[in-house]
Amino acid sequence: MARDGVTFEQVEAAADALVGEGLAPGIRAVRERLGNTGSPNTIQKHLAKWRDLRPSAAAPTANLPAGILSAIAQEIERAAAQARAETGARLVLAQAEVAELATAGEALEAERETLSALAGELARERDTLAGKAAEQAQAVERQAREIERERHAAEAARIELAQGRLRSEAQAEKLAEQAAEVLRLRDALEASQRASQQAGQDAAVLAAKLEASERRAGEIEAREQAAQVRAAEAEKQSQATARELADARVREQACQARLEGAARELEALRGRKPGEQAKAKPRAGKARNMDIIEDA
User: Would you kindly state where each structural domain of the chain is located, as residue ranges?
Assistant: First the structure.
């Protein structure tokens, strides 16, 4: 992973700190002050910018006293000497930096070649690993499909087992129901057989009763026929008795009429004289004899 580059502010702070400590702000010193981080090229670029921005000595004005101008001239000479010394130091430092940059460039080139070779090896290893990863992915996919098939098969087997268990339980319940039904039918058959035997016995009793009833019916029918004959005879006798009664009533009415006539005649005789009663008696006796003859 690439590291983040150092900023100008970091390089500036490190260079000012080195100058404050009386040390030359070279690339290696700044890099060490930054914690051995940052590219030497980047540090060198920031150091060049830092040097360009450093303040230079101001030029003296012409309207100053001679003593001040002499002092200024001396100061300028001293500053110039110092500047030449600094320039020489900077040149030496620049040459050293150039040497350092050359050394760093050679190291970077060697590192680049090493990294390039390493990158080639990593690329080959990546391709190899990619192929192995693809093969492993295919193998994993095959194993996943196989596991899925096995899972489906296991699930189907579990479902089949559960269905078989349910069918077994249903068959067991059905067999128990059939056994109970067989027992019930056996009991019903035994009850039916007992009922059949009882029905046979009842049928025999009923047949005997029917035969007796038929005999009694025959007897009753004969009795009814005899009763009908007797009734017919009684009807005839009743009709004859009714006729006899009617005749008896007629005779009774006739007798009643004769008795009333005799009573009137008797009353009439009671009102007559004795000689007339003696004459009338034979006639009354004769009349009674005639009535008896008529009744007979």
Answer: 8-54+66-129
